[in-house]
Amino acid sequence: MAVGVFDSGLGGLTVLDAVAKRLPEVPFVYYADSKHAPYGVRDADDIYDLTTRAVANLWDAGCDLVILACNTASAAALRRMQENGLPKGKRVLGVFVPLIEALTERQWGDNSPPREVAVQHVALFATPATVRSRAFQRELAFRAIGVDVEAQACGGLVDAIEEGDMILAEALVRSHVDALKRKMPHPQAAILGCTHYPLMLEVFQEALGADVTVYSQANLVASSLDDYLKRHPDMLGTGTESRFLTTGDARKVSVHATQFLKRPLSFEAA
């Protein structure tokens, strides 16, 4: 009955932590493609190939449902994977859906025409690949009108977080927020469009100001997954135990993951 959670590195652990707390009875198999991280600097074809390979490994690990807990993979690979067809009985979900549901205050199944929403000026902080894809703006435009989105590519931030260099990460957050504010001085809301970024939530909030609503994905994804599994209980796969897999150095990844979540985690080679 396992569910797969995939990320290029450790950022998806923020999502895993939230969904595991929300669904303690469900085993989760986490797959970090650490050997090829970060994805945010790669082109779309490369991201697609790496993502499909990782997801196939999660099918083999007994997961019928996989969450792409990686905004870059969700932006660059998810739609193409779905259009090319998934194996029978398998599903892949991204992390944009719950975020846009929250921002537009409408359910994903609501296919009514786009309408005006309360938030008109949105700052999007994401990896270079996610920004290039314009996936967030495209999905938002299906559901809302009149929303101005200013995207800021946060180069270097994922690498700093993965290496545990939080001093550098904080400096980069402040630099990227400053750059965004030069383009959009008064955002009403900010989207942390990478699952690594919630670890820097307080820094983003301080740099943006208390009047800016900052949307982080982990709890939104957990709530959405809970609802999805209630509606589709058949999507719980055959796996029976939680596991942590990585394409990188399992010992090194385990050390960084333990620092990342501040609790012991042990990865095995994928």
From TrEMBL:
<comment type="similarity">
    <text>Belongs to the aspartate/glutamate racemases family.</text>
</comment>
<dbReference type="GO" id="GO:0008881">
    <property type="term" value="F:glutamate racemase activity"/>
</dbReference>
<feature type="binding site">
    <location>
        <begin position="71"/>
        <end position="72"/>
    </location>
    <ligand>
        <name>substrate</name>
    </ligand>
</feature>
<keyword id="KW-0133">Cell shape</keyword>
<feature type="binding site">
    <location>
        <begin position="7"/>
        <end position="8"/>
    </location>
    <ligand>
        <name>substrate</name>
    </ligand>
</feature>
<comment type="function">
    <text>Provides the (R)-glutamate required for cell wall biosynthesis.</text>
</comment>
<feature type="binding site">
    <location>
        <begin position="39"/>
        <end position="40"/>
    </location>
    <ligand>
        <name>substrate</name>
    </ligand>
</feature>
<keyword id="KW-0413">Isomerase</keyword>
<feature type="binding site">
    <location>
        <begin position="195"/>
        <end position="196"/>
    </location>
    <ligand>
        <name>substrate</name>
    </ligand>
</feature>
<dbReference type="InterPro" id="IPR004391">
    <property type="entry name" value="Glu_race"/>
</dbReference>
<protein>
    <recommendedName>
        <fullName>Glutamate racemase</fullName>
        <ecNumber>5.1.1.3</ecNumber>
    </recommendedName>
</protein>
<keyword id="KW-0961">Cell wall biogenesis/degradation</keyword>
<dbReference type="InterPro" id="IPR018187">
    <property type="entry name" value="Asp/Glu_racemase_AS_1"/>
</dbReference>
<dbReference type="GO" id="GO:0071555">
    <property type="term" value="P:cell wall organization"/>
</dbReference>
<feature type="active site" description="Proton donor/acceptor">
    <location>
        <position position="70"/>
    </location>
</feature>
<dbReference type="GO" id="GO:0008360">
    <property type="term" value="P:regulation of cell shape"/>
</dbReference>
<dbReference type="GO" id="GO:0009252">
    <property type="term" value="P:peptidoglycan biosynthetic process"/>
</dbReference>
<feature type="active site" description="Proton donor/acceptor">
    <location>
        <position position="194"/>
    </location>
</feature>
<dbReference type="Pfam" id="PF01177">
    <property type="entry name" value="Asp_Glu_race"/>
</dbReference>
<dbReference type="InterPro" id="IPR015942">
    <property type="entry name" value="Asp/Glu/hydantoin_racemase"/>
</dbReference>
<comment type="pathway">
    <text>Cell wall biogenesis; peptidoglycan biosynthesis.</text>
</comment>
<dbReference type="InterPro" id="IPR001920">
    <property type="entry name" value="Asp/Glu_race"/>
</dbReference>
<keyword id="KW-0573">Peptidoglycan synthesis</keyword>
